[in-house]
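Researcher: We plan to redesign the surface later, but first we want a full-length starting point. Tokens attached.
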């Protein structure tokens, strides 16, 4: 089987997968619109995209990590730490730009730590990020004394809760991030290396690709995306909570898996991830409208991850 035929088969499968998840989203919307007359209102649809913006930012970074064959369980803790540091700087009345820059830089540093531990020491991504998840969360609890921080910069809150031509600012931030990452993945050599590392790391190494650099950059992007999610989170809740981001890694993994990212690495789609994020946001919103208790929503997310893993396993065969 030549390379062109293999490429066409993968493209056909990818298109079928995207068609399937779009159809799933449409059926989900149809179901909730029948069950609740409040579902298809402008305010509720706005709520869905706003709720999805935080998970969406994290999920985009997670998608790149998964494509390389890795996993990042620390994203929720990075989000909490970044938001807490930014909030502390804001309430100390330093310039807003310093608070935002500190949050983003901290996310990048946290990602670099993950990436270097994994790539230089050849440690398992699951174990490394499980450890840093606790470390980053612990630091957040220490610097906050376990208490939320309020009284954030009013200009920041006004901006994050405003709209540009009826589009909420958090949604614009999400799609700008998606556009930048899509460009990087499609039009740069780094983007090619991400898929190559996930597809066959040894072969990529023999091709003289710097695996350490590729993985470190990928985890740094994941950390940066988590910090952007932290900024959106602070804008929406007008506070920083040391417990923020708990279990967000599960939603991010679920969104990437729904969107077609292979948990074995080498395959993934940012567009698919965005659709996956909207599916999860729609599911959560619809169940809330139907007065379904939150722990059932957690159950459904777990079932979705299992279903996506099963589909991925058999599609690879």
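Model: Full-length starting sequence:
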């Amino acid at each position: 089987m030549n390379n062109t035929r293999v490429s066409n088969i993968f493209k056909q499968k990818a298109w079928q997968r995207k068609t399937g998840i779009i159809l799933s989203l449409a059926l989900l919307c149809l179901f909730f619109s029948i069950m609740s007359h409040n579902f298809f209102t402008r305010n509720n649809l706005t709520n869905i995209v706003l709720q999805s913006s935080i998970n969406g930012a994290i999920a985009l970074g997670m998608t790149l990590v998964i494509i390389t064959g890795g996993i990042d369980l620390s994203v929720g803790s990075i989000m909490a730490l970044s938001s807490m540091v930014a909030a502390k700087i804001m309430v100390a009345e330093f310039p807003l730009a310093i608070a935002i820059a500190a949050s983003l830089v901290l996310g990048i540093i946290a990602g670099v730590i993950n990436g270097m531990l994994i790539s230089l020491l050849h440690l398992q991504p699951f174990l490394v990020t499980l450890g840093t998840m606790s470390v980053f969360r612990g630091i957040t609890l220490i610097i906050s004394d376990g208490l939320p921080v309020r009284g954030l910069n009013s200009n920041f809150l006004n901006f994050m809760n405003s709209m540009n031509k009826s589009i909420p600012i958090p949604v614009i931030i999400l799609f700008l991030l998606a556009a930048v990452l899509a460009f990087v993945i499609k039009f740069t050599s780094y983007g090619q290396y991400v898929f190559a590392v996930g597809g066959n790391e040894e072969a990529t190494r023999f091709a003289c690709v710097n695996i350490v650099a590729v993985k470190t950059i990928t985890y740094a992007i994941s950390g940066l995306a988590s910090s952007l999610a932290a900024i959106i989170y602070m804008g929406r809740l007008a506070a920083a909570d040391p417990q923020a981001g708990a279990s967000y890694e599960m939603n991010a993994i679920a969104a990437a898996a729904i969107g077609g990212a292979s948990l074995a690495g080498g395959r993934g789609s940012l567009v698919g991830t965005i659709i996956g994020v909207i599916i999860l946001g729609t599911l959560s919103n619809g169940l809330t409208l139907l007065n379904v208790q939150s722990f059932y929503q957690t159950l459904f997310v777990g079932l979705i991850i299992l279903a996506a893993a099963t589909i991925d396993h058999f599609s690879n065969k």
